[in-house]
Please model this.
Amino acid sequence: MTKEFTPERSKKIKWKAVGILGKTIIDALFLSCRIRVKGYEPVRAIVESKRDFILIFWHSRILMVSYLFKGWNAAIMVSASEDGEYIAQVLERQGHDCVRGSSTRHGVRALQGIVKKMQNGQPAGIVPDGPQGPRQVLQPGAISLARKTGAPLIPVTYSATRRKVFASWDRFILPKPFSDNVVVYGKPIMVPPKMSAQEFEAKRREAEDELNRITALAEKLCGHEVDE
Model:
């Protein structure tokens, strides 16, 4: 029996196509690129355990991070908006587990969902300046998640020698095919379970500063000005 072609089924086909096409393009892009890695040794043991850590990376740098960790079943918070659906479809095709929510919409529920998934052994990923910025300003959700789980925050970023920088709020970067790319890991950041408001803010600032430090380093290694 032929299935009825309803608007709902049409939407499902559309999103499936988005995910497949997006993953295929990203795979082809980065397979053509040279990728160097800096700062990995201090976090190697944590990352290669594939559990009990939280990757943090800026919204503009999501493309390669999701590619490098594809197949890891990482619990990643993605905006509940329709724009977020595009990202979620690609991430799920890459083998990640999306939890829908953000700092502005369903954020508490999404954090609770990630906590449960981490308790089941999954690593996590947070885009701490998403979904709408401010750019490269770390929102408190990542610190709250680390405090609840006891897992270290692992900052990671990248840049490319040849890329397009979009005129979006996050200045999203798209490496060009066959470009040289540099991935940079930052130092692990531990968050204690009990903190005063001042200590919480200090830890938030520490994570933000470290993520901005390695992002500036990646830019310099690729020959770009820090505030291009």
Remarks:
- The chain has a mean pLDDT of 92.
- The longest strand covers residues 153-160.
- Residues 11-222 form a domain with the Glycerol-3-phosphate (1)-acyltransferase fold (CATH 3.40.1130.10).
